[in-house]
Amino acid sequence: MDTESTISPSARAKIRIRIKGIDYRMVDQCASDIVASVTPTGARISGPFPLPSQIEVYRSADQDEVRGHRRNIEIINSSAQTVDVMRRINLPTGIEISIAAPDEPVVPDPAAAPAKRNRRHDNRVLAMQFLCSWEVQRHADMVTALFDLFSEREKPRDYFSFAEELIQGVIRDVTLIDEVIGKYAKNWAFARIARVDLAILRVAIFELMRRTDIPPVVSINEAVDIAKEFSTDESKRFVNGILDSYKEELGRDPRKAEGN
Description:
single chain, 4 strands, four-stranded antiparallel beta sheet, 9 helices, N-utilizing Substance Protein B Homolog, Chain A, alpha+beta, 2 domains, Alpha-Beta Plaits
C-alpha cells in the first residue's frame, strides 16, 4: 500500500481508510489484517464499520446481482510507525483502498439510495456497525470505543441512546443470542456467517428477546431492511429465515407490543 502520497505529516495523527471489494469475506479479512497490524503501533482503531453495499452489476437473465462491499476504518493517534506498517500491508487482488485525512469532507455517494431519516433505524444501523467492529477488536476499553464511535456522528450522542442500549445489551447477552442463531442457522456453520449478517442478527434477536415493548415484526422488518442495504442479495432471506423461526418460539403476538 502506497501511503506516502496520500498522507501528509499534518494528517498522520488521524487517518480515515475506506476498503472496497466484491468479495465481502475478503473485504472483512483485509479490514481485520489492518486492525491487527496497526494496533501494536499504539494507534487506536475505530472500526471497521460496514457502509452500504453498492450494486456493481444488476441482475439479468444470465447474470446474478454483483455488489461492492465497503468498510470504513478510523485510525486515531497514528504515528510514523503506523504509516510505515500500513505501507507494508499487502493487499489481495480485487481489493481497493482509499486513504484520506479526517478533515477532508465525506462526499455523499451519488449512487446511494436516500438515507432513511428514522431515529430508530439510524440507531439500529449504528449498533450493527459497532458490533461488526467489536467482533474484530473485542474492545477492552468500551468507554473509549463508544466515545470514538459517537464523536464521528453528525448527531449528538443522546440521539443514539437506543443504539447504546442495543450495543451494551448484545455484548452482555451475546452467548445466549449466539445460541439462538446457531439453533436456527440450519446447515450453516456459525463461523461462516458473514460478519455484517451476524451483527444484524444479534441486534434483532436482542430486541426480540429483551424488548417486549417492540412488536416482533418491527424488529424483523428492520433487520431485513438493513441486510438489504448493507449486505448481499441473499442475506435478507437468511436473516429473515432465522428471525422468523425464532419469532415462533417467543409465544407472543408478532404484531403487538407487550408494554415496558
